[in-house]
């Protein structure tokens, strides 16, 4: 009995163990690099920004004096953007995904569209700014309005939402469609009563992650001319507006240190908002996994 | 399965009753693209009886079953020729709408495939599709269907629970209840017990004997003994052809084709 464990080649085994340890350390190092860099970033921002993280930040408009400045118009602008973008991009994105997965004939034209959408998901955001400027601001004459901004951002997130929704729809087992068809359901009944309920959490996860990307975007909005200094709240879709990342960018660009600290507190607010959206996405995903 | 040479035991109760024909297939060919999957099928299926399809795997049993509720329509490049007549109607003619056909010809699949919904909502899915929204009416349908599927007593106190909380055998009976809830005439079962344990299998076999008083049952089975135990008519398939069909006791005791005899005595397959 004890011979069984004794005549293994000990030298070879200890060599393998050492190898194992080296790889382990390398991978740990790779992980730590990211964690340390990220922690350093967060710590600097918090130490700089915590002092200015007070109610004034949420209730004051931007001002020439850092001590009186707040980001009320930017926070409200971002929230308005979100409320406009979310329904438009949800309807268009999920609609397109349903068409492509369930209705489109599987031919070369569909494949071409598919390829384009996947490519668009990786196009730099500034390109969408140029597109939005040409279409919404100039052609439709919407000027540098909240609506122009929201529509431009919708363009930006659409490919991401379409791809994510398609994956969610494709992940619904065939058997679940067959069960519905075999009971005499039409295509739309099957999609709406069987496929979408199974896919909706994963779709929502994709939508939220896409929207949270848009909330942090600056470049396309600067191109279409979102204002950097807005001392009022937009009252209609056609008013000028600003959003949090633009306000932050504007403060960082100032030489005074007081504005730098203000920017840091703005970043904290933006980050908290993004964390909330991501947590919502994760919660939805967990719910979805329970349903599979 | 072992290759015993003893022919399966046929149940004693199969009587040579004259059944009325409900399904009549004439010179039917089916192609998947260029692949000729069913060849010149001629077959009649009796009403309110159990018909079993047997034969080695890949010989076209599921394919023929799916032509009966036109689930093959969804497979691209499928072409079908010849006549499939159910209760006097050519089901491939233009007048037939496929939703009504599938309401009348229900199907139970090899893998139980409940929806990720409650037990109640699973059974109510079909009636709701076809326009029943009245709560009392749905309650009644759900109860009746679950009773017919011999599942009511096990689930009546947890109708709101997820269908996934049921065991595999219970899920399969739930799928039977779901199919019965739209009040079909014919029930197709494609190896509905092959993924189940022996006790669950037995339950479903017993169920078919209850159900055949009201429904025509057509079942695919890879298990000859099951066909012998519970079917009234057996159809033997080989390479896309219907080699022979007959009353089950006759087909197993006195097959007219040599290939049938070889198969049921375990010489191949
Ligand atoms: N969707 C399909 N496309 C192409 N060929 C298929 C398809 N489904 C089945 N076949 C082929 O048709 C033949 C019969 O299949 P099937 O009816 O599933 O056999 P069985 O149920 O008797 O095992 C097999 O050769 C199979 O490969
Ligand atoms: Mg099969």
UniProtKB/TrEMBL annotation, chain A:
Keywords tagged on the record: Cell membrane, Membrane, Transmembrane, Transmembrane helix, Transport
Any one cellular-component term (Gene Ontology): plasma membrane
ABC transmembrane type-1 domain location: 75-280
UniProt xrefs under InterPro entries: MetI-like, MetI-like_sf, Phosphate_PstA
UniProt xrefs under Pfam families: BPD_transp_1
Molecular function in Gene Ontology: phosphate transmembrane transporter activity
Family: Belongs to the binding-protein-dependent transport system permease family. CysTW subfamily.
Protein's recorded name: Phosphate transport system permease protein PstA
TrEMBL record, chain B:
Recorded GO MF terms: ATP binding; ATP hydrolysis activity; phosphate transmembrane transporter activity
Protein location: Cell inner membrane
Pfam families linked to this entry: ABC_tran (PF00005)
Single GO BP term: phosphate ion transmembrane transport
GO cellular component: plasma membrane
Lipid bilayer topology: Peripheral membrane protein
Domain ABC transporter: 23-264
Main location: membrane
Record flagged with keyword Translocase: yes
PANTHER family: ABC TRANSPORTER I FAMILY MEMBER 17
NCBIfam families: 3a0107s01c2
UniProt protein name: Phosphate ABC transporter ATP-binding protein
Source organism: Paenibacillus agilis
